[in-house]
Backbone:
C-alpha cells in the first residue's frame, strides 16, 4: 500500500500511468492527502509498537481528521513543489518534486502510490507548473 524510503517510486511507470488517471479536484486531493497522512501516522505508531490512545485514533481517523488538515497539507505540498520547479520543468522533474514533497510532509515518508499520480495529473491538467504555482 505504501511507498517508503526502502522502495523508490518508478518515475517512468508513474509517467506512463498518467493517461489512465482521472483528473482529480482540489478537494479530492485534499481528502486523499489527509487520509494518507492519517494512515501513515497510524503505520508509524504501529512500527514502534505503540498503541494509540483512543482520542488520537479518532483525531486521525479519516472521518474525524482535524478540520482543514488536507487543505494545510495541500498548501504545504504546493509550496515545496513550486520552490524547486519552473515553467521549463519536464514531467519527470514534476513527478520527482511531488515525490520529494510528499516524503517531507507525510509521517515516515509513507506515500500511497496513486496519490503521486493524482497530484501530478492535477498539476498538468490545471495548466502546467507555471499556472499551478501562480495560484
Residues:
Amino acid at each position: 500500500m505504501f511507498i517508503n524510503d526502502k522502495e523508490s517510486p518508478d518515475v517512468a511507470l508513474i509517467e506512463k500511468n498518467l493517461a489512465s488517471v482521472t483528473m482529480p479536484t482540489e478537494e479530492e486531493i485534499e481528502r486523499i492527502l489527509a487520509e494518507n497522512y492519517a494512515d501513515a501516522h497510524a503505520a508509524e505508531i504501529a512500527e514502534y509498537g505503540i498503541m494509540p490512545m483512543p482520542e488520537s485514533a479518532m483525531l486521525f481517523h479519516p472521518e474525524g481528521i482535524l478540520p482543514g488538515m488536507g487543505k494545510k497539507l495541500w498548501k504545504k505540498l504546493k509550496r515545496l513543489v513550486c520552490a524547486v520547479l519552473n515553467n521549463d520543468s519536464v514531467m519527470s522533474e514534476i513527478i520527482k518534486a511531488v515525490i520529494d514533497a510528499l516524503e517531507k510532509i507525510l509521517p515516515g515518508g509513507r506515500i500511497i502510490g496513486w496519490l503521486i499520480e493524482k497530484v501530478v495529473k492535477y498539476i498538468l491538467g490545471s495548466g502546467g507548473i507555471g499556472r499551478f504555482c501562480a495560484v
In short: The chain has one domain: 7-134. The helical segments are 11-17, 26-47, 54-60, 69-84, 91-105, 113-125, 128-134.
